[in-house]
Amino acid sequence: MLTSRERLLRNLDWNLLHTFIIIVNESSITGAARKLSLAQPSVSNALKRLEEQLGTQLILRRKGMFSLTYQGLRVYEYASSASMIISHLAEQFAAAEGSVQGEVNMQIASHIHNLAFDRTLGEFHQCYPKVLISINTHPSADIVSAVAADKVHIGLSNKKTAQTGLRFDLLGYEQMGFYCARGHSLYGEANLDLGDLSGLSYISFESDQPGEGLNELAKLREDQQYWGKLVAVSSNEEEVRRLIIAGVGFGALTYEGARPYVEQGVLFQLPPYQQLPVNDVYLVTPQNVPLSEVEKLFVTMLLKNAAQAVRKSYFSAVTVPT
Fold it and tell me: Domain span at residue 126?
Protein backbone atom coordinates (compact mmCIF):
# COMPACT_ATOMS: atom_id res chain seq x y z
CA MET A 1 0.00 0.00 0.00
CA LEU A 2 1.31 3.42 -0.94
CA THR A 3 2.12 5.93 1.73
CA SER A 4 0.64 9.42 1.46
CA ARG A 5 4.07 10.70 0.33
CA GLU A 6 4.38 8.05 -2.38
CA ARG A 7 0.81 8.67 -3.51
CA LEU A 8 1.49 12.41 -3.80
CA LEU A 9 4.69 11.87 -5.77
CA ARG A 10 2.88 9.58 -8.17
CA ASN A 11 -0.15 11.80 -8.70
CA LEU A 12 1.30 15.30 -8.49
CA ASP A 13 0.79 17.04 -11.83
CA TRP A 14 3.64 19.29 -12.99
CA ASN A 15 1.21 21.30 -15.12
CA LEU A 16 -0.60 22.35 -11.96
CA LEU A 17 2.67 23.45 -10.34
CA HIS A 18 3.65 25.38 -13.48
CA THR A 19 0.28 27.13 -13.50
CA PHE A 20 0.70 27.98 -9.82
CA ILE A 21 4.12 29.57 -10.51
CA ILE A 22 2.60 31.75 -13.24
CA ILE A 23 -0.29 32.76 -10.97
CA VAL A 24 2.19 33.91 -8.30
CA ASN A 25 4.44 35.67 -10.84
CA GLU A 26 1.45 37.52 -12.32
CA SER A 27 -0.13 38.13 -8.88
CA SER A 28 -3.56 37.30 -10.24
CA ILE A 29 -5.68 34.59 -11.81
CA THR A 30 -6.58 36.95 -14.65
CA GLY A 31 -2.95 37.77 -15.43
CA ALA A 32 -1.97 34.08 -15.35
CA ALA A 33 -4.84 33.18 -17.72
CA ARG A 34 -3.63 35.85 -20.16
CA LYS A 35 -0.02 34.66 -19.88
CA LEU A 36 -0.97 31.02 -20.45
CA SER A 37 -3.58 31.79 -23.13
CA LEU A 38 -6.20 29.96 -21.09
CA ALA A 39 -9.68 30.80 -19.89
CA GLN A 40 -9.80 32.24 -16.37
CA PRO A 41 -11.99 29.39 -15.03
CA SER A 42 -9.36 26.86 -16.26
CA VAL A 43 -6.63 28.61 -14.26
CA SER A 44 -8.86 28.84 -11.16
CA ASN A 45 -9.67 25.16 -11.48
CA ALA A 46 -5.96 24.27 -11.79
CA LEU A 47 -5.21 26.12 -8.54
CA LYS A 48 -8.10 24.39 -6.78
CA ARG A 49 -6.91 20.94 -7.94
CA LEU A 50 -3.35 21.64 -6.74
CA GLU A 51 -4.60 22.73 -3.33
CA GLU A 52 -6.68 19.56 -3.12
CA GLN A 53 -3.70 17.35 -4.01
CA LEU A 54 -1.48 19.05 -1.45
CA GLY A 55 -4.27 19.28 1.15
CA THR A 56 -3.64 22.93 1.97
CA GLN A 57 -4.61 26.42 0.88
CA LEU A 58 -1.90 28.15 -1.12
CA ILE A 59 -3.30 31.59 -1.91
CA LEU A 60 -5.50 33.96 0.09
CA ARG A 61 -7.86 35.69 -2.27
CA ARG A 62 -10.21 38.42 -1.21
CA LYS A 63 -11.42 41.48 -3.01
CA GLY A 64 -8.41 43.65 -3.73
CA MET A 65 -6.09 41.22 -1.93
CA PHE A 66 -3.73 38.52 -3.26
CA SER A 67 -1.23 36.86 -0.92
CA LEU A 68 0.47 33.51 -0.41
CA THR A 69 -0.09 31.45 2.67
CA TYR A 70 2.96 30.10 4.47
CA GLN A 71 2.48 26.73 2.75
CA GLY A 72 1.92 28.53 -0.57
CA LEU A 73 5.26 30.30 -0.17
CA ARG A 74 7.04 27.01 0.47
CA VAL A 75 5.37 25.36 -2.53
CA TYR A 76 6.35 28.33 -4.70
CA GLU A 77 10.01 28.09 -3.61
CA TYR A 78 10.18 24.34 -4.25
CA ALA A 79 8.27 24.57 -7.54
CA SER A 80 10.48 27.43 -8.77
CA SER A 81 13.62 25.37 -8.08
CA ALA A 82 12.13 22.41 -9.92
CA SER A 83 11.10 24.69 -12.77
CA MET A 84 14.70 25.77 -13.32
CA ILE A 85 15.84 22.16 -13.60
CA ILE A 86 13.02 21.21 -15.94
CA SER A 87 13.66 24.34 -18.01
CA HIS A 88 17.29 23.35 -18.55
CA LEU A 89 16.15 19.85 -19.47
CA ALA A 90 13.63 21.21 -21.97
CA GLU A 91 16.20 23.56 -23.52
CA GLN A 92 18.66 20.74 -24.07
CA PHE A 93 16.20 18.39 -25.71
CA ALA A 94 14.44 21.14 -27.63
CA ALA A 95 17.80 22.14 -29.08
CA ALA A 96 18.55 18.54 -29.95
CA GLU A 97 15.17 18.04 -31.59
CA GLY A 98 15.64 18.09 -35.35
CA SER A 99 19.43 18.13 -35.12
CA VAL A 100 21.41 15.37 -36.76
CA GLN A 101 23.00 12.87 -34.41
CA GLY A 102 24.61 9.49 -34.82
CA GLU A 103 27.87 8.06 -36.13
CA VAL A 104 29.61 7.89 -39.49
CA ASN A 105 31.90 4.87 -39.51
CA MET A 106 34.39 4.68 -42.40
CA GLN A 107 37.34 2.62 -43.57
CA ILE A 108 40.07 4.22 -45.65
CA ALA A 109 43.38 3.12 -47.16
CA SER A 110 45.93 4.98 -45.02
CA HIS A 111 47.91 6.34 -47.96
CA ILE A 112 44.92 8.04 -49.59
CA HIS A 113 45.23 11.82 -49.81
CA ASN A 114 42.08 13.37 -51.24
CA LEU A 115 41.28 17.06 -50.86
CA ALA A 116 37.55 16.53 -51.39
CA PHE A 117 37.48 14.01 -48.55
CA ASP A 118 39.46 16.29 -46.22
CA ARG A 119 37.21 19.22 -47.05
CA THR A 120 34.11 17.12 -46.44
CA LEU A 121 35.33 16.06 -42.99
CA GLY A 122 35.64 19.69 -41.90
CA GLU A 123 32.39 20.88 -43.45
CA PHE A 124 30.43 17.91 -42.20
CA HIS A 125 31.55 18.50 -38.61
CA GLN A 126 30.63 22.18 -38.86
CA CYS A 127 27.15 21.31 -40.11
CA TYR A 128 26.54 18.30 -37.83
CA PRO A 129 28.68 18.69 -34.68
CA LYS A 130 26.71 16.03 -32.81
CA VAL A 131 27.72 13.28 -35.25
CA LEU A 132 30.68 11.10 -34.24
CA ILE A 133 33.15 10.52 -37.09
CA SER A 134 35.01 7.20 -36.87
CA ILE A 135 37.81 6.33 -39.34
CA ASN A 136 39.85 3.13 -39.46
CA THR A 137 42.61 2.25 -41.94
CA HIS A 138 42.80 -1.01 -43.90
CA PRO A 139 44.21 -2.25 -47.22
CA SER A 140 42.00 -1.41 -50.20
CA ALA A 141 41.02 -5.04 -50.82
CA ASP A 142 39.91 -5.46 -47.21
CA ILE A 143 37.83 -2.28 -47.43
CA VAL A 144 35.98 -3.53 -50.50
CA SER A 145 35.34 -6.85 -48.73
CA ALA A 146 34.10 -5.09 -45.58
CA VAL A 147 31.55 -3.03 -47.55
CA ALA A 148 30.42 -6.14 -49.43
CA ALA A 149 29.96 -7.99 -46.11
CA ASP A 150 27.89 -5.12 -44.62
CA LYS A 151 30.54 -4.50 -41.94
CA VAL A 152 30.89 -0.87 -42.98
CA HIS A 153 28.95 1.30 -45.43
CA ILE A 154 31.54 3.89 -46.43
CA GLY A 155 35.02 3.09 -47.70
CA LEU A 156 37.77 4.96 -49.56
CA SER A 157 39.80 2.58 -51.66
CA ASN A 158 42.16 2.44 -54.64
CA LYS A 159 40.68 -0.89 -55.70
CA LYS A 160 37.62 -1.28 -57.91
CA THR A 161 36.03 -4.64 -58.59
CA ALA A 162 33.18 -5.79 -60.79
CA GLN A 163 31.20 -7.00 -57.80
CA THR A 164 27.42 -7.07 -57.62
CA GLY A 165 25.96 -5.02 -54.79
CA LEU A 166 28.76 -2.45 -54.61
CA ARG A 167 28.92 1.09 -55.94
CA PHE A 168 32.24 2.74 -56.86
CA ASP A 169 32.32 6.53 -57.29
CA LEU A 170 35.57 8.05 -58.55
CA LEU A 171 36.66 10.80 -56.14
CA GLY A 172 39.98 11.70 -57.76
CA TYR A 173 43.54 10.57 -58.17
CA GLU A 174 46.75 10.39 -56.15
CA GLN A 175 50.35 10.28 -57.32
CA MET A 176 52.95 7.96 -55.85
CA GLY A 177 56.69 8.53 -55.73
CA PHE A 178 59.81 6.80 -54.40
CA TYR A 179 61.81 8.16 -51.50
CA CYS A 180 64.82 7.47 -49.33
CA ALA A 181 66.09 9.01 -46.10
CA ARG A 182 69.36 10.45 -44.86
CA GLY A 183 72.08 7.80 -44.76
CA HIS A 184 70.80 6.06 -47.88
CA SER A 185 73.36 5.71 -50.69
CA LEU A 186 71.18 7.76 -53.08
CA TYR A 187 70.20 10.57 -50.69
CA GLY A 188 70.99 13.96 -52.21
CA GLU A 189 72.35 12.52 -55.46
CA ALA A 190 71.60 14.40 -58.67
CA ASN A 191 70.87 13.12 -62.18
CA LEU A 192 69.49 9.78 -61.00
CA ASP A 193 67.43 7.48 -63.19
CA LEU A 194 65.46 4.29 -62.57
CA GLY A 195 68.54 2.21 -63.27
CA ASP A 196 70.16 3.60 -60.14
CA LEU A 197 67.53 1.80 -58.05
CA SER A 198 68.67 -1.59 -59.33
CA GLY A 199 69.42 -4.09 -56.59
CA LEU A 200 68.42 -1.78 -53.72
CA SER A 201 66.20 -2.93 -50.86
CA TYR A 202 62.61 -1.84 -51.38
CA ILE A 203 59.72 -1.05 -48.99
CA SER A 204 56.07 -0.75 -49.96
CA PHE A 205 52.41 -1.31 -49.13
CA GLU A 206 50.64 -4.66 -48.96
CA SER A 207 48.44 -3.57 -51.85
CA ASP A 208 51.49 -2.91 -54.10
CA GLN A 209 50.59 -5.98 -56.17
CA PRO A 210 49.11 -6.55 -59.64
CA GLY A 211 45.32 -6.25 -59.48
CA GLU A 212 45.29 -4.70 -56.02
CA GLY A 213 44.80 -1.10 -54.91
CA LEU A 214 48.25 0.16 -55.91
CA ASN A 215 48.16 -1.62 -59.24
CA GLU A 216 49.89 1.19 -61.18
CA LEU A 217 52.77 1.15 -58.73
CA ALA A 218 53.08 -2.61 -59.13
CA LYS A 219 53.07 -2.26 -62.94
CA LEU A 220 55.97 0.18 -62.79
CA ARG A 221 57.96 -2.18 -60.59
CA GLU A 222 57.13 -5.08 -62.88
CA ASP A 223 58.40 -3.13 -65.89
CA GLN A 224 61.69 -2.51 -64.07
CA GLN A 225 62.78 -6.12 -63.54
CA TYR A 226 66.14 -5.09 -62.09
CA TRP A 227 64.80 -3.70 -58.82
CA GLY A 228 66.05 -5.21 -55.58
CA LYS A 229 64.07 -7.45 -53.28
CA LEU A 230 61.12 -6.34 -51.18
CA VAL A 231 62.40 -6.16 -47.59
CA ALA A 232 59.42 -4.69 -45.68
CA VAL A 233 55.68 -4.13 -46.18
CA SER A 234 52.85 -2.48 -44.26
CA SER A 235 49.23 -1.51 -44.89
CA ASN A 236 49.80 1.80 -43.09
CA GLU A 237 51.47 4.82 -44.70
CA GLU A 238 52.87 5.97 -41.37
CA GLU A 239 54.69 2.66 -40.90
CA VAL A 240 56.02 2.60 -44.47
CA ARG A 241 57.39 6.10 -43.90
CA ARG A 242 58.86 5.00 -40.55
CA LEU A 243 60.68 2.12 -42.25
CA ILE A 244 62.11 4.43 -44.92
CA ILE A 245 63.28 7.02 -42.39
CA ALA A 246 64.80 4.24 -40.26
CA GLY A 247 67.01 3.32 -43.20
CA VAL A 248 65.56 -0.10 -43.99
CA GLY A 249 65.42 0.81 -47.66
CA PHE A 250 63.81 3.15 -50.18
CA GLY A 251 60.08 3.01 -50.67
CA ALA A 252 56.86 4.23 -52.19
CA LEU A 253 54.78 7.01 -50.64
CA THR A 254 52.05 9.31 -51.90
CA TYR A 255 53.48 12.52 -53.33
CA GLU A 256 51.27 14.69 -51.09
CA GLY A 257 52.03 12.64 -47.99
CA ALA A 258 55.80 12.79 -48.56
CA ARG A 259 56.01 16.45 -49.57
CA PRO A 260 56.37 18.01 -46.06
CA TYR A 261 59.11 15.50 -45.19
CA VAL A 262 60.94 16.31 -48.41
CA GLU A 263 60.71 20.03 -47.64
CA GLN A 264 62.21 19.35 -44.19
CA GLY A 265 65.03 17.31 -45.69
CA VAL A 266 63.94 14.14 -43.90
CA LEU A 267 63.12 12.38 -47.19
CA PHE A 268 64.65 12.65 -50.64
CA GLN A 269 62.69 11.96 -53.82
CA LEU A 270 64.03 9.35 -56.21
CA PRO A 271 63.16 8.76 -59.88
CA PRO A 272 60.94 8.69 -61.78
CA TYR A 273 60.33 12.44 -61.60
CA GLN A 274 57.90 12.58 -64.51
CA GLN A 275 54.78 10.50 -65.16
CA LEU A 276 54.54 9.27 -61.58
CA PRO A 277 52.29 6.26 -60.94
CA VAL A 278 48.71 7.46 -60.50
CA ASN A 279 46.09 5.62 -58.45
CA ASP A 280 42.34 6.08 -58.66
CA VAL A 281 40.56 6.96 -55.43
CA TYR A 282 37.06 5.46 -55.09
CA LEU A 283 34.21 5.90 -52.69
CA VAL A 284 32.84 2.41 -52.03
CA THR A 285 29.25 2.06 -50.79
CA PRO A 286 26.65 -0.73 -50.85
CA GLN A 287 23.94 -0.71 -53.48
CA ASN A 288 21.47 -3.03 -51.79
CA VAL A 289 21.89 -1.98 -48.15
CA PRO A 290 20.30 1.36 -47.18
CA LEU A 291 22.59 3.95 -45.62
CA SER A 292 21.66 5.64 -42.37
CA GLU A 293 20.55 9.28 -42.55
CA VAL A 294 23.93 10.58 -41.35
CA GLU A 295 25.74 8.32 -43.83
CA LYS A 296 23.58 9.66 -46.66
CA LEU A 297 24.38 13.22 -45.63
CA PHE A 298 28.12 12.51 -45.56
CA VAL A 299 28.16 10.67 -48.91
CA THR A 300 26.10 13.41 -50.60
CA MET A 301 28.46 16.12 -49.32
CA LEU A 302 31.55 14.11 -50.31
CA LEU A 303 30.34 13.50 -53.88
CA LYS A 304 29.45 17.18 -54.25
CA ASN A 305 32.90 18.28 -53.08
CA ALA A 306 34.56 15.71 -55.34
CA ALA A 307 32.65 17.02 -58.37
CA GLN A 308 33.63 20.59 -57.49
CA ALA A 309 37.29 19.55 -57.14
CA VAL A 310 37.22 17.93 -60.58
CA ARG A 311 35.69 21.02 -62.17
CA LYS A 312 38.27 23.25 -60.46
CA SER A 313 41.22 21.07 -61.46
CA TYR A 314 40.31 20.34 -65.06
CA PHE A 315 37.75 22.85 -66.30
CA SER A 316 38.35 26.12 -64.42
CA ALA A 317 40.43 27.56 -67.28
CA VAL A 318 37.90 26.72 -70.01
CA THR A 319 36.50 29.82 -71.65
CA VAL A 320 33.40 30.07 -73.77
CA PRO A 321 34.05 31.54 -77.25
CA THR A 322 32.16 34.68 -78.07
Answer: 105-280
Q: Are residues 90 and 154 in the same domain?
A: no
The verdict on 168 and 185 lying in the same domain is yes
Beta carbons within 10 angstroms of residue 163's beta carbon: 13
Exposed e or buried b per residue across 175-195, where buried means at least 16 C-beta atoms within 10 angstroms of its C-beta: ebbbbbbeebebbeeeeeeee
**Which one-letter DSSP state was computed for residue 32?**
H
Cα gap 67→61, rounded to integer Å: 7
The pLDDT score that the predictor gives to residue 86 is: 79
Cα–Cα distance between 97 and 282 in angstroms, integer?
34
Is residue 305 in some structural domain?
no
- Mean pLDDT in residue range 307-312: 82
Check whether residue 118 and residue 230 sit in a common domain: yes
Please report the DSSP string for 99-145 in residue order: ---EEEEEEE-TT---HHHHHHHHHHHHH-TTEEEEEEE--HHHHHH
End-to-end CA distance of the chain: 91
Q: Which pLDDT score is estimated for 317?
A: 54
Spatial contact of 278 and 174, defined as CB atoms under 8 Å apart: yes
Give 9-55 pLDDT, tens digit per residue.
777 888 888 998 999 888 888 888 888 888 888 888 988 888 888 88
Residues 116 and 263 both lie in one domain: yes
Say whether both 259 and 139 belong to one domain: yes
Burial of 262 (0-12, 13-18, 19+ CB in 10 A): middle
Among residues 228, 244, 232, 223, which one has the least CA distance to residue 196? 228
Q: How many beta carbons lie within 10 A of that of residue 227, not counting itself?
A: 19
Average pLDDT over residues 84-105: 72
Asked whether residue 156 is domain-assigned, the answer is yes
Number of domains observed in the structure of the chain: 2
pTM: 0.62
